[in-house]
Amino acid sequence: MNKIHIIGLMSGTSLDGLDLAYCKFSRQESWAFEIIHSQTVSYSKEWKARLSSAMSLSKEELERLSLDFGLLMAEHLNDFIELHKIEIIDAIASHGHTVFHQPQNGITLQVGDPKPMYDVVQKPIVWNFRSPDIALGGQGAPLVPIADRLLFAEYDACLNLGGFSNISFEEEGKRIAFDICPVNIVMNVLAEKLGMPYDDKGEFARSGNVDEDLLEALNQLDYYTDAPPKSLGLEWVQEHVSPLWEFYRLSVEDQLRTFVEHVAIQISMLSRENNLNSVLITGGGAYNRFLMERLNNLHPNVWTLGSHELIEFKEAMVFAFLAYLRLNGCINVLSSVTGAKNDHVSGRIFAGDC
Predict the structure, then answer these.
(1) Cβ(286)–Cβ(303) below 8 Å
(2) What is the signed CA dihedral for 319, 320, 326, 332, rounded to 10 degrees?
(3) Sign of the torsion formed by the C-alpha atoms of 298, 299, 305 and 311
(4) CB of 173 closer than 8 Å to CB of 152
(5) Domain with CATH 3.30.420.40 in the chain
(6) Which member of 123, 177, 213, 264 lies 3.0 to 4.6 Å from 168 by CB, making a disulfide possible if both were Cys?
(7) CB atoms near residue 214 (< 10 Å)
(8) Neighbours of 2 (CB within 10 A)
């Protein structure tokens, strides 16, 4: 297929909501993409609670959650199609929502049964992108870098500021990528203590003070000295970061200020060490003006903000692109990124089978 229209659905670990992006992809001399329509549907309090507590569920309860979440995605998918009067759909790409991600134990789980979505569109659903990479000994993440290489080659690196910060760049002819540190998955939880879903523009953090002891404890976490491939998950945050809030009893504003400084230090240090002079930034964290100020202060004249559509919907678009590659039998996961045994074509295709 030289031209294809795919809707990508992405649910991030920060629980901001379900992202939907209707995209067109084509290839002549080079790859091209267009985000035609996009939307984020916020989760209800009930769904936030169900998804955030999913790790404690039994196997049977997880199966029920996966079906229910598939039904929820199908409902939002149908509304999205009707709202934008979308007529041409070749496939749906569904990342689902990550419940477990423990590559060291060979485990990753994204809930979201594909059948309800297939019932809506009667088109192939490409899903379960991460498990095949885990089976090949990889981290199952990050999966975005193949798109960074093919769609954004004019930048030295692509940086996403979502639940976690992750980066992708070329090193000695190979694409490497990894999670740098947590971002919104921590800051949103702290902001909720102040009655807000997130720290708007970083103003809470701006009003706080850096606690040097907490900052040192954060910067000395063992993960930061590990070599890639490596990735982070909610479990890691709960084990290594969350206990620090109890140990260092600070105001929420001081916790946010210190954590923003931690994030800025980790990202800018990595960019300097790898001589990255042009970095495209996407993800919700790009709207945190205070975080951007700290990055610019620590490593000036490097960062380029993506368009609104890219900042908000790059990941949903990328999973649509991964589905495009999957449907064409093209490699869409790089072993240099995930640590798998080999480059491979990932993603299961649901086309009405049981």
Answers:
(1) no
(2) -40
(3) negative
(4) no
(5) 3-140+316-350, 145-309
(6) 177
(7) 21
(8) 8
pLDDT block averages, 10 residues each, the chain of length 354: 90 87 91 96 95 94 98 98 98 95 89 97 97 94 92 96 93 93 96 95 98 98 93 90 95 98 98 97 95 98 95 95 96 95 97 71
> Which residues have a Cβ under 8 Å from the Cβ of 282 and sit 6 or more positions away?
158, 159, 160, 161, 306, 310, 311, 314, 315
Fold of 145-309: Nucleotidyltransferase; domain 5 (3.30.420)
Provide CATH code, domain 3-140+316-350: 3.30.420.40
Please check whether residue 115 is in contact with residue 138, taking contact to mean a CB–CB distance below 8 angstroms.
no
Q: Which residues of 234-263 are buried (b: 16+ CB within 10 A; e: fewer)?
A: bebbeebbeebbeebebebbbbbbbbbbbb
Burial per residue of 52-83, b for 16 or more beta-carbon CB atoms within 10 angstroms, e otherwise: eebeeeeeeebeebbebbbbbbbebbeebbee
Type of residue at 261: E
User: Residue with structure tokens 């990342």?
Assistant: 95
Q: What's the DSSP call for residue 344? A: B
Q: Exposed, middle or buried by CB within 10 Å (0-12, 13-18, 19+), for 171?
A: exposed
Amino acid letter at 199?
D
Instruction: Please state, in angstroms and as integers, the Cα–Cα distance from residue 95 to each residue in 17, 20, 319, 342, following that order.
Output: 13, 11, 7, 22
Only one residue has tokens 């709202």, namely 83
Tokens found for residue 321: 């692109």
